[in-house]
Amino acid sequence: MATSSVPESESDSSCVGSDYAEIIVLRHGETAWNADGRIQGHLDVELNDAGRQQAAVVGDRLSKEPKISVVYSSDLARAYETAQIIAARCGGIKVVTDVDLRERHLGDLQGLVFRDTAKLNPKAHRAFVSRETCQEIPKSTPWRNIMEFPAHDS
């Protein structure tokens, strides 16, 4: 994720003050597990070559934005490497890591190939594909914890 500050004169919006932060949210580049359809969650999987190339393309695009000032990332390798590549392409700006930026812990589904989850763990699969937040994946981060996550200073 990258942030930038854009003066009002350069903004299309007249209802925003001159001092504001623009937040650009990005997902990490591809991993071998993404390519296989394997669920990662909190498991630490590195980028593959395609993911590194994706990060470089995004970094090149963002390097044309003059106000990118910092990149925030989870501490997982795939996110951190994506952030490092982007930051390097944007002039070596700072990367700040925070464990709270990790994606959801997906409990019993982590490490499984998605197409096999219905057969291997039907309850977890139903919860994963459900839009009902009351259905929980066994051993995962509960939705209520995610939705009630308090803001804090790092």
Structure description:
It is a single chain. This protein is of the alpha+beta class. The chain folds into 2 domains: 2-103, Rossmann fold (3-Layer(aba) Sandwich), CATH 3.40.50; 108-154, no CATH class. It has helices spanning 32-36, 49-62, 77-89, 114-120, 122-129, 143-147, and strands at residues 2-5, 21-24, 68-73, 94-97. It has a 4-stranded mixed sheet with strand order 2-1-3-4, covered by helices on one side. α3 (77-89) links the parallel β3 (68-73) and β4 (94-97). α2 runs parallel beside α3 (77-89). The model is unreliable at 5-16 (pLDDT under 50). Substrate binds at residues 27-34, 78. The active site is at residues 28, 103. It holds the Pfam family His_Phos_1.
- Secondary-structure-based class equals alpha+beta
CATH architecture annotation name of the largest domain: 3-Layer(aba) Sandwich
Helix and strand sequence: EEHHEHEHHH
- In total, the number of strands is 4
Q: What proportion of the residues is helical, as a percent range?
A: 25-40%
Largest sheet: 4 strands, mixed
Query: What's the rounded overall pLDDT mean?
Result: 86
Going by CATH, the homologous superfamily of the largest domain would be Phosphoglycerate mutase-like
How many helices? The count is 6
Output the CATH class name of the largest domain: Alpha Beta
Low-confidence stretches: 5-16
Portion in beta strands: 5-15%
Backbone shape: globular
Neighbour order of strands in the largest sheet: 2-1-3-4
Distance between termini? 16 Å
- The gyration radius over C-alpha positions equals 18 Å
